[in-house]
Amino acid sequence: MPQFAPDIYASPQIGKLLADEARVLGPMLARCTADHGLHLTAAAQAGVPALPLLGHWATVRVGGASLAGDVRASGLEPLPFVDDAFGVVLLRHALETTARQDNLLDEAIRVLAPGGMLAITGIHPVGLWSPWVARHSRGTRPRLTWPWWWSQRLVRDDFELAMPRRVGSPWPRASGVPFGESMIGGGYLLLARKKRPAAVPLRPRLVAVPSPMSGTLASGARRNARQTL
Predict the structure, then answer these.
(1) Helix (H/G/I), strand (E/B), else coil: 171
(2) Quick check: is 207 in a domain?
(3) CATH number, domain at 114?
(4) CA gyration radius for the chain?
(5) Which pLDDT tens digit goes with each residue over 18-74?
(6) Which of 18, 8, 13, 228 shows the shortest CA–CA distance to 121?
(7) What CA–CA distance (Å, rounded) separates 119 from 34?
(8) Residue 97: inside a domain, yes or no?
(9) 116 close to 107: Cβ distance less than 8 angstroms
């Protein structure tokens, strides 16, 4: 079972990668409007992006079989939120450290409101970051997963997807110039919108509408009637 690796997600290298992700993620979510957003993260120092149109954030730290932060609960149980509670859900490296990847993604989808945005970030399994993670992790290392795998899951769950993007420096670094998108970046970003349910038109019901008629004939009608007689 994957265990939380604080030496990785508290490191300056991951801190730099999180900052690079935020540079790309912020403008992409700037127009999101909602009362509440959910931030599921593996790193304690990962701050939420400043979204001027979003009301409040709930931050939950994911590690192994536990949840911490604004909510303390078991990571093996459903998230303690009602359905469709959040307009934005961010999974920032949370799928790498959870004990149940598919279940956490299912829960993120459940608590996301129709029309809301889902963002997933992680360390790309191909590149120089993967051996660095293996060398610096203690015990069971984080599970690095291809972004296309999550894309397939979200398509199956009827999401509208943007193309996955690679972000950050190609190699682990603790400082230096900020990075944005990069073809060989060490991290990836996947953005998707939860489709709203299609409106089902009601079948029109025929209703007889009586036509108003007076009790007497018009003058022309009376004249025609006399001529006929």
Answers:
(1) coil
(2) no
(3) 3.40.50.150
(4) 28
(5) 999 999 998 988 888 888 999 999 988 778 888 877 888 899 999 878 888 888 887
(6) 18
(7) 15
(8) yes
(9) no
